[in-house]
């Protein structure tokens, strides 16, 4: 962990000056793209992904060291969205085809992902979930999903949805799927936490993450890691403020 932090610290320090923050605050950039590129080149975006998919083969603890540096330099990055809400669930619960399709691009810094920004105390998912109904060999999604960071930049989104029988399913939905509308919303830190509208969105059975009915456990798994990552970001913010 210390080695990862020592690798990340100078990259963040070099790229997180006042000018980059001003460009973000003026909404000239959605995130710090050059910093993102350098983190990818250093293997820090894929630090918790296996080497088979372009990662470093380390773990979530090492990833949290990167989040702490992000907080220390208040850098606007889609790291939580892409890695914790997107890539890690795919790595843990996805099929081999899903992992091979999405994870190498994430590790290279070329593909952004997202998902519902949710917390364990909220039941593991956002307050509102789209409805999932079987439609032949497909699934149909209708409704709204809140708090989805960087959805406009994401190539695919991890979407929890609730079926008529009350079971939760989690789908990996490509962002260009017909019937999916993404609306930009900004949080108090100016980072996007978007709202998604699903209107007769059709997804294949192969887009299911994990097994049918496992969605509540998957969402809880994601929520626990999202809360932990946010905690390390705040640890970085506060430690530098005290310094």
Please explain how this structure is put together:
This protein is 41% helix and 20% strand. By secondary structure, it is of the alpha/beta class. Strands 1, 2, 3, 4, 5, 6 and 7 form a seven-stranded mixed beta sheet that branches. α1 runs parallel beside α4 (60-72). The chain is globular and about 55 Å long. The chain starts with a helix and ends with a helix. Mean pLDDT is 90; it is low at 122-126.
Low-confidence stretches at least 5 residues in length (pLDDT < 50)? Answer: 122-126
Helix content class: 40-55%
Mean pLDDT: 90
Secondary-structure class: alpha/beta
**Element string (H = helix, E = strand):** HHHHHHEEEEEEEH
Strand content: 15-25%
Shape: globular
Write down how many β-strands occur, each being a DSSP E stretch of 2 or more residues.
Answer: 7
Biggest sheet character: 7 strands, mixed
The DSSP helix count reads 7
What does the radius of gyration come to?
A: 17 Å
* Euclidean distance between termini CA atoms: 21 Å
Q: What key phrases describe this protein's structure?
A:
243 residues; alpha/beta; 7 strands
Q: How is this structure best summarized?
A:
The chain is an alpha/beta fold and 243 residues long. The protein has seven helices and seven strands; from the N terminus they run ααααααβββββββα. Strands 1, 2, 3, 4, 5, 6 and 7 form a seven-stranded mixed sheet that branches.
């Amino acid at each position: 962990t210390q080695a990862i932090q020592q690798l990340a610290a100078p990259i963040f320090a070099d790229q997180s000056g006042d000018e980059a923050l001003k460009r973000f605050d003026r909404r000239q950039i959605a995130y710090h793209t050059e910093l993102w590129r350098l983190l990818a080149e250093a293997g820090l975006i894929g630090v918790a992904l296996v080497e088979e998919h372009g990662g470093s083969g380390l773990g979530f603890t090492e990833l949290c060291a990167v989040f702490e540096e992000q907080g220390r330099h208040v850098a606007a990055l889609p790291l939580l969205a892409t890695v914790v809400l997107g890539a890690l669930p795919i790595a843990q619960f996805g099929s081999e085809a899903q992992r091979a399709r999405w994870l190498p691009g994430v590790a290279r810094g070329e593909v952004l992902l997202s998902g519902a920004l949710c917390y364990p105390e909220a039941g593991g998912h956002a307050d509102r979930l789209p409805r999932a109904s079987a439609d032949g060999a497909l699934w149909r999604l209708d409704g709204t999903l809140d708090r989805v960071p960087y959805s406009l930049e994401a190539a695919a989104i991890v979407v929890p949805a609730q079926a008529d029988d009350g079971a939760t399913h989690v789908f990996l939905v490509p962002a260009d799927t017909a019937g999916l509308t993404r609306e930009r919303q900004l949080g108090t830190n100016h980072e996007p936490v978007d709202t998604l509208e699903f209107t007769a969105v059709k997804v294949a059975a192969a887009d299911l993450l994990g097994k049918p009915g496992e969605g509540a456990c998957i969402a809880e798994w994601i929520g626990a890691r999202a809360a932990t990552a946010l905690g390390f970001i705040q640890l970085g913010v506060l430690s530098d403020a005290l310094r």
